[in-house]
Every structure is written in structure tokens, then in C-alpha cells.
From TrEMBL:
<dbReference type="InterPro" id="IPR002781">
    <property type="entry name" value="TM_pro_TauE-like"/>
</dbReference>
<keyword id="KW-0472">Membrane</keyword>
<feature type="transmembrane region" description="Helical">
    <location>
        <begin position="232"/>
        <end position="252"/>
    </location>
</feature>
<dbReference type="InterPro" id="IPR051598">
    <property type="entry name" value="TSUP/Inactive_protease-like"/>
</dbReference>
<keyword id="KW-1003">Cell membrane</keyword>
<comment type="similarity">
    <text>Belongs to the 4-toluene sulfonate uptake permease (TSUP) (TC 2.A.102) family.</text>
</comment>
<dbReference type="Pfam" id="PF01925">
    <property type="entry name" value="TauE"/>
</dbReference>
<feature type="transmembrane region" description="Helical">
    <location>
        <begin position="176"/>
        <end position="194"/>
    </location>
</feature>
<keyword id="KW-0812">Transmembrane</keyword>
<feature type="transmembrane region" description="Helical">
    <location>
        <begin position="108"/>
        <end position="126"/>
    </location>
</feature>
<keyword id="KW-1133">Transmembrane helix</keyword>
<dbReference type="GO" id="GO:0005886">
    <property type="term" value="C:plasma membrane"/>
</dbReference>
<feature type="transmembrane region" description="Helical">
    <location>
        <begin position="48"/>
        <end position="71"/>
    </location>
</feature>
<feature type="transmembrane region" description="Helical">
    <location>
        <begin position="201"/>
        <end position="220"/>
    </location>
</feature>
<feature type="transmembrane region" description="Helical">
    <location>
        <begin position="83"/>
        <end position="102"/>
    </location>
</feature>
<feature type="transmembrane region" description="Helical">
    <location>
        <begin position="138"/>
        <end position="156"/>
    </location>
</feature>
<protein>
    <recommendedName>
        <fullName>Probable membrane transporter protein</fullName>
    </recommendedName>
</protein>
Amino acid sequence: MISAMMVAVIGVGLLAGVLGAILGLGGGVVVVPALEFVLPLFGRDITIAQAVAVSQIGVLAVGLSGAASYLRQGLVRARTGYLLSPYTIVGGAAGSFLGLVLPARAVATVFALLLLYSAYNLLRGLKRVEVERPPSRLVPPAMTFAGVMSGLLGIGGGTVQVPVLNLLAGVPIRQAIATSTFIMGLTAVGNALVYQAGGLLDLPLAAGVALGVLIGARAGATLQSRIPAAQLKLFFSLLLIFTAGQLLWKYWGQA
């Protein structure tokens, strides 16, 4: 029989999958802070590095499930994804290594700041580029940075990838989200292997998160065109601000 804790973990994955696929964020912005605050309610402590390791499996699940739906809809720029994924994979491996050696407070602080930055972008609204134009030379280094953030923070890199694809590569916003989802799945494989080698990956927890994410990401990819973007972005922005505040309080306010 499935324990209450595992039901909660699957629920975390479900929410992460839906929001991750809709916004192309990978779901890690939900999984990492949610695991940090939900598991202690069941008497189970988890470090941020362990939460990031589990999140990598969730990101992989978002990439597999969400990208499959987007591919059927014809939204994924597969060629763009294959050309840019090596940058995110290399960056992801570097970020994963940093996640193994950096202090938890440093990782939590970077994560909280990225959450606040993501909330700002969502509230402001991404500048929609619907007309094709030549990509900027800044795209490769920017995608490498997205990979580093993915490996370090377990976020999938979509908080960086979507703006890069949309604003610098000239990819329309819905295709940018779909292509980001496709790329993050490829990047998460290498990230998860690094964390597994470091002994931080809890496979039962990862399986629970992945199960929820697989269901949620498929639903999120289908619902993306039906949900009013403004309402969803407002809700998600408030969620990001709240979780960032919780993380900063946990690692700094109680120091």
C-alpha cells in the first residue's frame, strides 16, 4: 500500500509536471522547494542537494512526456534542439558537479534568486517574438548557462532557455516553450547520472516524482493553449515568490 508520504510526493510531481510543461520550466521550481517543505511533515528530512538530485528525474520525465505531446502538435524545433542541446548538456554536467560540492546555503540562495527572477519575468510578460529572425551569437553561451543552472538547481533550465530561444534565437513563444521542454529532457540524463554517482539520488522518491510528472506533463502540454496565460502566470509568479521567501528564511532567517 502506498504511504501518505509517497502520495504527497506523487502530488508534487503532478503539479510540477502540469506547470512545467505549460511554461517550459522543467518543474524543478516546484519539486525542489516542495520536497524540502513537504517531506519534513512526514518526519523525513532531505537536503537541498538531495532534492535537486530527485528533481533531475522529474525534469527528465517532463522532457519525455511534455516533448512527446509537443512533437505531435508540431511545436518542437527539433533541429534547433539538437544543435543547442550539447551546450546545455556540458553546462548541466558542470552545474551538477557544483551541486555536489557547494554549501547548501549557497545553492538555496542562488535558487531563491532565480525564482524571484523567474517571477519577475512572468509578471512582466515575455516579449513575444512571432517573426522569424537570425539568432544572436549570444545563444550558445546563454544556453550553456541554462545548462549550468539546470545541473546546479534541478530546474530544467527553462527559466533561462525560454527567454533565450524567444528573445535571442527569434523562436515564437509557444515553440520556444516546446523546444525548451525537448532540450531539458536531453540535459537531465547527464545531470541525473552525476548526482547518482555522487550518492545523492533517492530512487524511491525520484520514482514517485517521475510518476506524477509523467501524468502532469502530458496534461500540461495539452492544456497549454486552453488556459489563460495571464491568470496562470500570476498564480505561478506568486508561488515562486512564496517559495523563494521560504528558502531564504530557512537558510538565512534562522541562521
